[in-house]
Hints:
Layout: H1 8-33, H2 40-62
Amino acid sequence: MSNPRVNKWLDLLDRVGWTAIQAAAAAVIVILTTSDGMGWEDGAKFVGVAVVVAFCKVIVGQNTGTDDTGALIGTPVIEPPAEG
């Protein structure tokens, strides 16, 4: 089995983009459901920090390990196809 080729820029955009969406959703829910919790500025900081952390995680993942899939667990995350 050969290692798959991964477009690192699209991988980065996909992973960081989804983290941004998840963090934004969490921030909006917290802002809307707390009366004295964080405001919009705090929510923006929350999302920004999550995006920076995701960006760093993807860069580290893409530059470590035995392949370029971005997996940090030391084992490829793409399984071979089922034999049938």
